[in-house]
Write a structure and sequence with these properties.
- The protein has about 550 residues and is α+β, with helices and mostly antiparallel strands.
- It has one domain (about 45-545).
- Helix content is about 25%, strand content about 25%.
- The protein contains 11 helices and 26 strands.
- It has a 16-stranded mixed sheet that branches. The chain has a two-stranded antiparallel sheet with strand order 1-7. It has a two-stranded antiparallel sheet with strand order 3-4.
- Helix 1 (about 5-70) crosses helix 2 (about 70-80) and helix 6 (about 290-295) packs across helix 10.
- The longest helix has about 70 residues, at about 5-70.
- It is globular, with a radius of gyration of 26 Å.
- The chain starts with a helix and ends with a strand.
- About 45% of the residues are buried.
Length: about 550
């Protein structure tokens, strides 16, 4: 063996040893990184569970107070308000019915701090909270023209702030405010000079000094005929297209129009704003609506939601109408695994009041246990004013939520406007006087404009006669089959929880919510159609009833 061969062999041996050492180091690094990731995952899971348990207790305590405290309940009863986990926000209902040609159910959920993407969440990363509003069936609303409903602030696509503009102005210049659309897009319509529905509701969010709530809205649209525009108190906006994919997430977008952002609810800490808002009741007796308006001038606890009918093609299979008699498990939204996204919000709603009992005679939701321990070492927040802002990013906007130049507002079709007011608390105490303050805020717009108020569904309102109803609702289709054929999607237990304690109709299938996951009733002459969901199957049962 020559010296060259020896040197070559030595070099090869050195290279081999270096390679083996490198592999050992690489494997050690990979193992260490894996262990770190596992530890982070365990820590995140523990943080999520702690948040879920704490938030759930606060919500249960809140429901306990709102439904069992005699004084608080009296305030709600005097104002004909209910505590609901699911609300009906129907742009076009039929008279005397729970159903209609453009109907939407809303649920409201708080998102855990550990959520990174709105479309990927575990069951314990969502907790539903209630809304205080008129009963779902009557759906009492104000009637106001979109030309007269003013938006205090709204940001356009260039991040420029527009102040005190009407809803009609925003619709006419919709391309300026929604960056998905061409700049010249115009969604105005002559019907905006006529009155439309304006609903109002209040939600009380459990927060602490260090932990604001980050929330979103889940909108389950039956016909998927439009989109939902959100406007926050500082001009933040969000837009969601109604899609046949379960409950669609309604949240803010970031200014780049690339990501979803949570609706953040925190305690109002500005003392001058709080003091002006909570004026003692005895001092309000001689107060004019103009003076009252000054007390609300700086508050930031309202989100404006506008439901807009939109002409656009839906997938062919959906446009033909979903088969209601098909196995629900086969037509539920995709991604039914561990990570379900915001469309599965209702599964969390069941968790929230799984310890609650349904009391038929009063139609109330009563929690069997209230929170007894405070698991968070954080300063509590008294019942009071909330401050709404754009929260953290919740991942990229889904392609299906994008608008395009082939989408237009439906002609001669009214919009629906909702005022979503927010309060905060974490002590469990809900003071009746402060609750009255929020109820006054909810009704201020109507009083300031002398607007009519009542139920278009029942025909009862300030217009004194059913013949004078300001907006005439269309009649239902002649048959159940024709009604169901209008659905782009149907509710099922995965995407919807029908917790409707205010219906007031006795029926064998209404013996508690748990039996069927909830029901929505069709009130039309003497026919009652009950849609129930049992063990992941949709069972449609129709029975003729004599309505009393």
């Amino acid at each position: 063996m020559t010296m060259n061969h020896v040197l070559l062999l030595f070099e090869s041996l050195c290279f081999y040893m270096k390679t083996q050492n490198s592999k050992t180091t690489s494997n050690t690094q990979i193992k260490k990184k894996t262990e770190q990731m596992e530890q982070q995952t365990i820590a995140a899971a523990a943080k999520t569970q702690k948040w879920f348990d704490y938030f759930k207790k606060l919500v249960q305590t809140q429901v306990e107070i709102l439904t069992k405290n005699a004084v608080v309940k009296l305030v709600l009863d005097e104002n004909k308000l209910k505590v609901l986990f699911l609300t009906w926000s129907d742009r076009l209902r039929s008279a005397g019915s729970s159903w209609g040609s453009d109907i939407t159910d809303l649920m409201f959920g708080a998102v855990a701090p550990t959520v990174e993407k709105l479309t990927e969440m575990d069951d314990n990363q969502l907790v539903c909270f209630a809304a205080i509003r008129p009963p779902n069936y009557s759906d009492d609303i104000d009637v106001i023209k979109p030309t007269e409903f003013m938006i205090p602030k709204i940001l356009d696509r260039y991040d420029m702030l527009h102040e005190n503009v009407s809803v009609a102005y925003v619709l006419k210049n919709i391309g300026l405010f929604l960056a998905d659309l061409p700049l010249s897009a115009d969604w105005s319509d002559g019907i905006d000079h006529e009155v439309t529905q304006v609903a109002s509701q209040l939600s009380i969010l459990p927060v602490t000094k260090q932990q604001p709530a980050e929330v979103g809205i889940a909108a389950f649209s039956y016909q998927c005929k439009g989109g939902i525009l959100l406007v926050g108190p500082n001009g933040e906006t969000g837009f969601t297209l109604e899609q046949p994919s379960g409950s669609n997430p309604v949240v803010f977008r970031d200014q780049s129009n690339e990501n979803y952002c949570a609706i953040q609810i925190a305690e109002e800490t500005r003392e001058d704003v709080k003091q002006a808002f909570s004026k003692p009741k005895q001092d309000q007796k001689e107060e004019s609506v103009e003076e009252e308006a000054k007390r609300y001038q700086k508050v930031e606890n309202r989100v404006i939601m506008i439901q807009i009918p939109i002409d656009r093609p839906l997938p062919r299979a959906v446009a033909q109408g979903a088969n209601l008699f098909k196995d629900a498990g086969a037509i539920e939204r995709e991604g039914r695994g561990k990570k379900k996204g915001f469309g599965a919000l209702a599964s969390a709603a069941v968790v929230v009041h799984e310890e609650c009992a349904y009391k038929e005679e009063s139609g109330m939701m009563l929690c069997s246990e209230a929170a007894s321990e405070d698991e968070e070492e954080d300063e509590p927040v008294k019942f009071g004013l909330a401050r709404v802002s754009r929260g953290r990013s919740l991942g990229p906007i889904a392609t299906q939520d994008r608008l395009n130049d082939k989408m237009f507002r439906t002609k001669n079709a009214r919009i629906r406007i909702s005022q979503l007011f927010y309060a905060v608390h974490s002590t469990g105490d809900i003071e009746p006087e402060m609750l009255n303050q929020f109820i006054s805020q909810m009704s201020w717009l109507r009083r300031s404009k002398g607007a009519q108020h009542g139920s278009l569904v029942t025909g009862e309102g300030s217009w004194n006669s059913k013949d004078n109803v300001p907006i005439k609702l269309p009649a239902l289709p002649n048959t159940i089959v024709e009604l169901f054929a209008t659905f782009a999607q149907h509710p099922n237990g995965w995407s919807q929880n029908f917790a409707l304690p205010d219906i007031g109709v006795q029926h064998p299938l209404l013996v508690g919510e748990v039996q069927a996951g909830g029901q929505r009733l069709l009130r039309h002459n003497d026919l009652c159609c009950v849609i129930t969901h049992q063990v992941n199957h949709l069972v449609v049962q129709m029975q003729a009833l004599q309505m009393l």
